[in-house]
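> call design_seq(struct)
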């Protein structure tokens, strides 16, 4: 039976970018990507809003900041080279209250430190020149380098390039056990057994489970949060020209509901953020008893819930009240009405929590003598995917090669 040089678990954008980067740098290596679903980009990558993030929000010198900026440039170049649909439509971050201005200034300063090109502070009139239906701003930031892209198409093209380099992407292969031995490691799936020298875990929502199956005991746990969206009906899509974001709440780890022009022409509104009772629970009624008990027994979730219970209740209320959802959207576009919206598919975010309830807001890797486990790849992981691939390749070179 063949022994692969690298086995990569997970065919989202991080796993595929990693396989692509290794195959480009080391064309003689044999690489296998294992994916439990029947196609690539089936979960977080294929169920997000498709935004190309600028990097303006992220703590300077963090992995998120550096990889987002680098990844954004690589992503745009990749789309240009391989004819993947994208658009640099720009974003406005909107302050609707004078009290928001100091935080707006802080975001702008962060953007300057992170070297986000072209950003400008703009006044109320300039906001409405960019987004005419945003009529209640006091100030804003224009981020012209933000955009939108079809991440599923990016992943499909990555798969094609990986396979053209003589490597393999095997779908329908759910990893359940990883064992090391003197010569390498054995990866067991629900249907097959594979042998490799080194392993890279890019399993996203199940990254902690895959690590545990290899005998690694991470000090974090993935807790799923569902982001629920609406879509503007065709007759009011003209309300939005690009990306419209509110001022983020500094006391809450989500950006708040916003408007996102999509690469296929639709306009999404959202998301809210509610605890999901299943790691891949895209519907309100999705439920997995074992995973729910696992989360509820984790002290980090209890500590998080204790800290954010009031905001969490607000999110749940918006989940079941379209009127409440619209009220939040009206803070940005007062013209929005309930009848302008129709339901849109949800996404699920893998939030990595420490036992004390602290949210791990940067990338985290666990490295052993034969394995790299990507335990946390938070937003903007899709934008940063190719840069994260470079980061993982560098770690592999330093550790294995």
């Amino acid at each position: 039976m063949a022994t692969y040089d690298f086995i990569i678990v997970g065919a989202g954008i991080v796993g595929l970018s990693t396989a692509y980067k290794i195959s480009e740098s080391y064309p003689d290596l044999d690489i296998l990507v294992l994916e439990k679903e029947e196609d690539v980009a089936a979960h977080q990558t294929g169920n997000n809003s498709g935004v190309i993030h600028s990097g303006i929000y992220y703590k300077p010198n963090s992995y998120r900041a550096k990889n987002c900026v680098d990844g954004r440039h690589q992503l745009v170049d990749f789309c240009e080279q391989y004819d993947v649909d994208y658009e640099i439509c720009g974003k406005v971050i909107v302050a609707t209250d004078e009290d928001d201005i100091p935080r707006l200034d802080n975001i702008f300063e962060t953007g300057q430190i992170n070297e986000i090109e072209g950003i400008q502070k703009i006044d109320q009139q300039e906001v409405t020149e960019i987004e005419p239906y945003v009529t209640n701003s006091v100030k804003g930031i224009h981020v012209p380098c933000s955009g939108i892209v079809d991440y599923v198409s990016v992943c499909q093209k990555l798969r094609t390039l990986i396979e053209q380099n003589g490597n393999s992407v095997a779908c329908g292969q759910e990893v359940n056990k990883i064992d090391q031995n003197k010569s390498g490691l054995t990866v067991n799936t629900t249907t097959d057994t594979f042998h490799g020298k080194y392993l890279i875990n890019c399993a996203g929502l199940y990254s902690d489970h895959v690590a545990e199956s290899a005998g690694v005991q991470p000090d974090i746990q993935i807790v799923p949060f569902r982001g629920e969206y609406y879509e503007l009906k065709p007759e009011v899509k003209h309300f939005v020209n690009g990306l419209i974001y509110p001022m983020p709440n500094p006391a809450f780890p989500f950006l708040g509901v916003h408007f996102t022009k999509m690469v296929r022409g639709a306009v999404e509104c959202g998301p809210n953020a509610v605890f999901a009772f299943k790691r891949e629970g895209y519907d309100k009624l999705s439920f997995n008893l074992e995973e729910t008990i696992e989360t509820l027994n984790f002290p980090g979730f209890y500590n998080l819930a204790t800290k954010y219970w009031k905001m969490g209740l607000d999110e749940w209320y918006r989940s079941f009240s379209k009127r409440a959802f619209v009220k939040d959207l009206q803070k940005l576009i007062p013209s929005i009405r309930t009848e302008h919206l129709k339901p849109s598919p949800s996404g699920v975010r893998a939030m990595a929590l420490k036992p004390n309830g602290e949210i791990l807001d940067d990338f985290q890797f666990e490295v052993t003598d034969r394995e790299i486990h990507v335990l946390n790849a938070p937003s903007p992981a899709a934008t940063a995917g190719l840069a994260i691939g470079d980061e993982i390749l560098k770690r592999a070179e330093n550790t294995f090669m």
